[in-house]
Amino acid sequence: xxxxxxxxxxxxxxxxxxxxxxxxxxxxxxxxxxxxxxxxxxxxxxxxxxxxxxxxxxxxxxxxxxxxxxxxxxxxxxxxxxxxxxxxxxxxxxxxxxxxxxxxxxxxxxxxxxxxxxxxxxxxxxxxxxxxxxxxxxxxxxxxxxxxxxxxxxxxxxxxxxxxxxxxxxxxxxxxxxxxxxxxxxxxxxxxxxxxxxxxxxxxxxxxxxxxxxxxxxxxxxxxxxxxxxxxxxxxxxxxxxxxxxxxxxxxxxxxxxxxxxxxxxxxxxxxxxxxxxxxxxxxxxxxxxxxxxxxxxxxxxxxxxxxxxxxxxxxxxxxxxxxxxxxxxxxxxxxxxxxxxx
Length: 343
Ligand code: FUB
Hints:
24 strands, five-stranded mixed beta sheet, binds beta-L-arabinofuranose, Tachylectin-2, Chain A, mainly beta
């Protein structure tokens, strides 16, 4: 199959794909042009609602757009920027977990609940207690436990929470603009720029088990460690280190943690033996696409594995007007993923 655009009539991004009731549902971000200037804080991504699309045939079929499933005006705690979301099912209920900016300027994760995969979703009054940053990926393991992987650097504010990451040395602004340091974005005071030596461990993302009712974290978030083949954490200056867009899937009993590298514009993956990791870096899934962001999900549907992703070709490279794409994904016999070529 040739890669194809999934929904040419509107700009959507960050596709989270899940099979429910024999259909492939895609939960994307809904891009629009709010007229904001491009900045490193993602201020040009001003999304205000979510739609859900479904497909009987992802290779040739037309998307069914189920319309708006949640609007920012319905969420008491959220002011703006409805960024990446994901959905998980438990006992016939569907939980949309989403990132949005609260009135204090801090990104949090919220939950909205529905009886059907296409919603409508009813939001909780408050964000998840103790949640922070962006890009939740909801993963249900074979034993029924549900995990949330989350976090994103710079505009996603993961670096604001670096004090949670004991032992991962970032070097606050005292190093200023000294050459050769890796820029980690703004600290929690919204002003101090953080830098790390390129050979310091990269800031990791987070994973947390959800409570039985899927409305709260059941524990403190843990670090998602990505190790190189020598067992050392990937470094802050490594173009393959985590930036945002966590995704977890399982293949032949292995846990595949995949993510975007942000400013190096790759989709990469690492594998592990359990949902908490650590994960060992394996390689690149997708080379840079047109547009600054790259974001994906990996899903098996009707016996075939697919990469869902986005690029900005249809908007002529406008980085906040992205279009959904799909193409097949293949594994080698040793379980490694063949790099997908975006055409
Ligand atoms: O869609 C807004 C943000 O852009 C997402 O949360 C990031 O992963 C990036 O795709």
